[in-house]
Amino acid sequence: MQSLFGLTPEQQSLQEIATRFATDKIRPAAPGLDERAEFPAALIKEAHTLGLINLTLPVECGGSGLSIFDGCLVIEEIAWGCSGFATSMVANDLALTPIRIGGTSEQRKRFVESLATGGLLASFCLTEPGAGSDAAGLQTTVEDGGDCWIITGAKQWITNAGHAAQFTVFATIDRTKKHKGICCVVVPRSAPGITVGHHENKMGQRCSDTCSVVFDKVRVPKDHMIGAPGEGFKIAMQTLDASRPMTAAIAVGIARAALEHAIGYAKERKQFGVPISSFQAIQFMLADMATAVESSRLLTWKSALMLDEGKVASIESSMAKRMSADTAMSVTTDAVQIFGGYGYTKDYPVEKLMRDAKLLQIYEGTSQIQRIVIARELLR
Ligand code: CAA
User: Fold this and answer.
1) pLDDT tens digits, residue range 299-321?
2) Which of 126, 237, 367, 378 best tests ligand 1's pocket when mutated (most atoms within 8 Å of CB)?
3) I need a labelling partner for 278 at 20 to 30 A (CA). Which of 58, 199, 213, 251 fits?
């Protein structure tokens, strides 16, 4: 088993590449991208050239072939740079993972390899205006059109949608069957009948592209269905299990950045004639923040290692996502507190981190949904 307390030389150099990219490229661009709510298309292309995107997709599928653990190492660094950027990256893995999990080798080649090698983006289309936490309640339909599947419905909060070349769409073939009627279908952006909405004007993670997508009787060939009709829900859940450690790593990256800024500021800022770091009130806050970051990372690493060993890790992935998201929110809030009035302005980096952190408690399953998954497993 990978030691939790020491990284291999290969992992250290992978981490260094990601830290350098985050330091040299992402951090300088992040405030402007946030201000303008601008998608970092050029930087994403650079990340692709460095092998920092499609991290966990196998090499034969055009990905970087990293384990989920190694993917988490990279993503923490990228999110330390800017979590909106990291979300754009993880969302691509999220969109292509259902095809890796449920697709045939021919489908993997056609829908994953061609996209990943070309540095193109894809979107995971599960959520709908009326079906967020209740994923099995989705209303988008997939009908048998004889020689094709016909998809009709609306998707909401779809990451990367404005820049995606392909959508992985979850739709029901029979609403009365609930989750057992859900199918997974690959839809190229070029198919007639697709309308992508505007880039949502979000509170945080403003550079990540989030749009609605409407499918109006969109036709795709029969071999675009991943798995058998009705297998889509399980494919979606397995995909989320695999993705949640990476999302947890985004949260750890945000929290670590906030902690570092808070330590630096506490040592510089003087009140009552001394640095505020000499006050126990600040020391205790920093100690709690550091402990929360460390324990969130350990849970994230554990869930990633379990998945890499082929174990079922629904409970651990949900624990990692829940804890890391809540840590990101509390640590960034405390960082703003340590900065005081300055922290509440856009002149200092911690207000952005606090806004960015909030999304972690909402997307890829809210903190409440993670608790449901954990409790159900405990009580099974
Ligand atoms: N792996 C495999 N199968 C699973 C599973 C898993 N992790 N979880 C559930 N299943 C199976 C169950 O075993 C069950 O199968 P059977 O019918 O054969 O028994 C079936 O799926 C239905 O399971 P549930 O009864 O538990 O389903 P539910 O309707 O009660 O919902 C839920 C469960 C956990 C709440 C689920 O709806 C859920 O995860 N909701 C949150 C959705 C979510 O995370 N959305 C985020 C979208 S992606 C996003 O935000 C990313 C982005 O763009 C950045």
Assistant:
1) 999 999 999 999 999 999 999 99
2) 237
3) 251
